[in-house]
Amino acid sequence: MSRTSVFISATLLVVGLVAGMSLAGASEEGAGDAPMAAPSLRAATLEAPNARAAAFVHPSGYFLRNKGFRTITHPGTGVYCLQLPRGMDPSTAVVLATPEFQLSPTYDIFVQWDWMAPSCGMTRGIEIRTFSGGGVPANEAFTVLVP
Questions:
Q1: What average pLDDT does the structure give for the chain?
Q2: 99-113 pLDDT, tens per residue?
Q3: Residue 55 CA: distances (Å) to CA of 25, 89, 104, 134
Q4: Most buried one in 13, 66, 97, 130, CB count within 10 A?
């Protein structure tokens, strides 16, 4: 048997063993207490029954959870523009924003709402700005609520 044949046979054996162990582990998990699953990071509807709009936003500028906001854009570092639903006047809205720890790349962060939305340039839009320590603009995760 050539060296190449031995190598290929050994590789297939290892792949088969790993696959078998994975399948065995999966069947054992169902037998006892299932481990707690990590929360999904896919876009989902947000449960906020008394909010007109609410969102959980990823540092890259997309919704992880959303209720009511139409769109989001991320025009620059630490700048997020969220478009409010039709019929909601941003000049009468009060916006609450807070940083999210787990998905943010830094721990010394803060979030601000800029009611004038100078970077967004859209109607019915609100602007959220995120910063890391020392007030440096940074892409951070956050939640936002419009009661």
A1: 76
A2: 998 998 888 899 999
A3: 36, 18, 15, 26
A4: 130
Same domain for 61 and 29: no
How would you write 7-48 as a 3-class SS string?
A: HHHHHHHHHHHHHHHHHHHHHHHCCCCCCCCCCCCCCEECCC
What's the pLDDT tens digit per position in 20-76? 433 344 444 444 444 444 455 555 566 777 789 999 999 999 999 999 999 999 999
- In terms of domains, do 21 and 67 share one? no
The residue range of the domain holding 109 is 44-146
Look-up of token digits 């959870």: 65
How many domains does one find in the chain? 2
60: its two tokens: 């890259």
Q: Residue 125's beta-bridge partner residues?
A: 83
Phi, psi of 49 (to 5 degrees): -60, -30
